[in-house]
Amino acid sequence: MTATDPALTALSQGWCALSLLHGRIEAHIERALQTKHDLSVREYSLLDVLSRQHDGEGGHLQMKQVADAVVLSQSATTRLVTRLEDRGLLERYLCPTDRRGIYTNVTEAGLRLLEEARPTNDTALREALDEAARNPELAPLVRAVEALHVPA
Asked: Which residues have CB under 8 Å from 90's CB, separation 6+?
């Protein structure tokens, strides 16, 4: 394959379109969440991921798992957790069976904010996808996203 190979160009163009779609969606959701709930997309995502934890086997996520779920480095995730903890939306505590482990849970205030913000997130996502679907270059990607049935 050379730098001028048509397949590489098409692949590169597809990646650019996917990146553009992601950027537009994230920016649209960010504006809505910031305006209505004083939350960033990353903060919302972190609250959402952590709210799905449960007691029992495999119920609590390690910081690396959380970082992977919100697509951040572990250090960036730790800083994000600290910011939300300072706002009273998260709390940390030691693992009862392994004193080296630290768990993070969403507080009642965090759960209330997440439930208030969820419709805003969903509406902003729908709006961003509808807008992108009007762009012929992005429409196939929107259809692909809409066809996905990924378990939460």
From this structure: 46, 47, 50, 81, 84, 104, 105, 106, 107, 110
Contact 39, 117 (CB under 8 A): yes
Neighbours of 27 (CB within 10 A): 13
Report the alpha-carbon distance of residue 142 to residue 64 in Å, rounded: 30
> Measuring CA to CA, which residue among 84, 93, 85 is closest to residue 44?
84
- Per-residue model confidence as pLDDT tens digits over 28-47: 999 999 999 999 999 999 99
DSSP string spanning 1-59? --TT-HHHHHHHHHHHHHHHHHHHHHHHHHHHHHHHHS--HHHHHHHHHHHT--SSTT-
Task: List the Cα angle 19/24/25 in 5-degree steps.
Answer: 100
Q: What is the pLDDT of residues 75-86, one digit of tens each?
A: 999 999 999 999
Do 60 and 75 meet the contact criterion of CB atoms below 8 Å apart? no
